[in-house]
Specification:
alpha/beta, Rossmann fold, 3 domains
Amino acid sequence: MAETPDRKRATLARVAERAGVSVMTASYTYNRPDRVSEAARAKVLAAAEELGYAGPHPSARSLRRGSTLTIGVVLGEQLSYAFDDPAAVTFLAGVADVCAARGFGVTLLPITGAPEDVARITDAAVDGFVVWTTADDDPVLPAVRATKRPAVVHGGTPLRGLGGVTIDNRAAARAIGAVAFAGADRPAILSQPLTRDRVAGIVGAGDVGTVLFPVTRERLAGYRDALEGTGRSWAEVPVAVCARNDVAEAEQAATALLTGPEPPDAIAAMSDQQAAGVLRAAAAVGRAVPEELAVTGWDDAPLAERLGLTTVRQSLRDQGAACASIALGRRAKAVTATWSVVTRSSTRG
């Protein structure tokens, strides 16, 4: 049914006129109801219903109060990653904890390398940004900084004007690597992506080249420290690069390593999800853990304890909360989070 002329031209001023109150009273009915009597409020709402007025546009409300009451989380992944990846889910829960306590919402901004990525940042109606899973050369980083809104990068290289939350990934990798590679003759690494093109495959550690994901780069450096500390050659270590933090993909990569001409007797994985894939592959090819194959993970997710994984413990939920606090301008801009090594039955000794 076609709208009546009244419904097409419904404005707050017309609502006020119909209700017999001032425009300010009509406005307060929606934005400051505590300052309007019940009688006046009833008149305004009745007039709005009659005229088909749905209330002030949310954008107009945001302009008046100078805030959208929303934080934008920039994901260097497809949108589904926020719901499928356990690490992302835990991190976002920490962001949500802080936002809920402050009366803020969360807007997810997926970044996939498409031409519209920068525009998605520029046009986002948010008060601040939390950037998760990004590379040094990602164009969204200067786009975030150009908005002049509070922003923080998780796990990445802090840029001028942006906050940062991370652990010392190199030190943690050095520590977990020392456990993973103890007594090993043929160590290997299961890696997160090296660059934004996310090319998967097996390469030599000496061929890794420029790694643009800071977390991956720092962890590889830490594993190298652990190996070179024992006098072994880093260049000969195979690195299986996975495009995603996915158990099935990790299982496939580990199977390729374990069925190759020189199967490893230790694999350090950059996540518990990846390590779970390694354990599946080991079982499928009949390699006993840890006697024939030592395996380590990262994050100490709930499945790590179930699987008996030796891993790096960190609280991604606490880190998400710290990021949200920085993006809301309520915390110092730099946070170095704590970590520890948890030793379980997947490693020797």
